[in-house]
Amino acid sequence: MVVVRGEGGYAGGARRLVGAAAVVLTLAGVGVALGGGLVGRAESPPKPPPSVTSAATPSTPPSAPLDVPAAPRIVSDHLAFEAARKAETAAYSLRHYGVRTARLQPSMIVLHYTESDTYASVRSLFAADLPNRGEAPGTCAHYVVDQDGTIHELVPPTLRCRHTVGLNHVAIGIEFVQASHGHDPRWAAQQVLARRAQALAGASLVEHLQRRFDIPDQAVIGHAMANDSKAFRDLEGWRNDHVDWQQPEVVAFRRLLATAP
Ligand SMILES: [Zn+2]
């Protein structure tokens, strides 16, 4: 089922984000990669460019100097996104956003939680491609972050999928495995934030996507915030009725992104 895919300098070594040192290392290099392009990350002095620091570690490949963050380990477990589902997605995009395309040029990231306890159950739901609100394609998300911190990529971030009404034309969707078990919806997001491996893996994934697509922290939002986004657009007049990831927990999540060593 799984193929491990490395990206952007991932050296194929031990799992990252298993401890504070790995997190600090990951976050420390963000300012280098972004050149100050994102907010809230300039609390430490700028680091020298990778080409300088890598000279001290000649055994390290130039693509993976020690002070530049490796991409998070992402397990590729793609849904069968065949021509039919792409065509359904393009038709949905035409109806709701006015352009017939399945391609995504992401400028936002929307956080979700799964309302289920296992990765397997949410994956099979997304794989089923069942109509939602009477329309194809089925719902999906680009990534699912499991409770142990495993990051699964279900759909490449350059393809659209249905996770957030009004923002599927601009947003990558990330699901965290978590059910609310009858609690207040904010409780579920708080469980994710309190689960260190899962929260830090999610932060690492978001930072990786921010670097890749130049997405600012303020464009990382929760599903519950989608209707109020400036980018929200739905030509059919649809609105979200989901309550996952409300603003206080999203602000707390963004603080993980902004943490400087
Ligand atoms: Zn959601």
TrEMBL record:
Its EC number is 3.5.1.28. This is N-acetylmuramoyl-L-alanine amidase. The keyword Cell cycle does not apply. It catalyses: Hydrolyzes the link between N-acetylmuramoyl residues and L-amino acid residues in certain cell-wall glycopeptides. The keyword NADP does not apply. Residues 97-236 form the N-acetylmuramoyl-L-alanine amidase domain. GO terms for biological process: cell wall organization; peptidoglycan catabolic process; peptidoglycan turnover. Keywords: Cell wall biogenesis/degradation, Hydrolase, Membrane, Transmembrane, Transmembrane helix. It comes from Pedococcus dokdonensis. InterPro entries: Amidase/PGRP_sf (IPR036505), Amidase_domain (IPR002502), NAMLAA_amidase_2 (IPR051206). GO terms for molecular function: N-acetylmuramoyl-L-alanine amidase activity. PANTHER family: N-ACETYLMURAMOYL-L-ALANINE AMIDASE AMID. The chain crosses the membrane at residues 17-39. Pfam families: Amidase_2. Residues 41-69 are annotated as: Disordered. Gene3D superfamilies: Peptidoglycan recognition protein-like.
